[in-house]
Amino acid sequence: MRRLLIRPGAIGDIITSLPALECLRGDYTEVWAPPAVTPLIRFTDRVRSIGSTGLDLLEIPGQSRSALDLLGGFDSIVSWYGSSRAEFRQAVRGYPFHFFPALPESVHAVDFYLAQAAQLARCAPSAPSLPVARRRGDYCVIHPFSGSPRKNWPLENFQAVAARMTLPVHWCAGPQEALDGAVRFDNLWELAQWIAGARLYIGNDSGITHLAAATGVPVIAIFQASDPRIWAPRGRCVRVLECPSVEQLLAEADRAQNDA
Q1: What pLDDT score was predicted for residue 64?
Q2: For position 259, what pLDDT does the model report?
């Protein structure tokens, strides 16, 4: 069976979907996803960015015959893309699509996506995992940003933690995030490989925190706004703190280092 998996979303959405995507593998498997996350999808025969396929033009009549030609090469298409858009579903009528809603409710995102995949394949419970070499180093990575200001613990709190850490601290930031002296990677796979060498990672509820957890590094995830029962990262050693004080985070960091 030739199976196509179409998964839009931000970094955290993709990482929480990884166990479900992996259990949906066919004899040949292709994934279409946003370009930034394609380096993280390592288990498939081929990965393409959604934009490169012309899929986003299908709702414009006559604009993307090439996307339909690509879709015609699959026996099964599992899509979180366009699931709530009647125009898109009409454009691909007659192709072997199975649509899933993309936003979890009331259950953890990893379990939500696995339950969806279990409708089509046998799935075992598992946490997201990236096949990076785990090399324990003697430094802490702090990423003090997220996709929303509401999710961000105050930067001065992170700075207060860093000033009292016994480990050397390396700050991490994305290409558009303003932080002098931060380590930056344009490629998420290279970022995952670097984080995998840390002894501890500290960050907000963000895609990069999910990325860190998937490498197996001990993680402290700070939640300010969203529900950790749904969005907490899963990994070998993940601690979740909701609106902590600096003292609470430092105490948790000490415990995490001892357990690493």
Answers
A1: 64
A2: 66
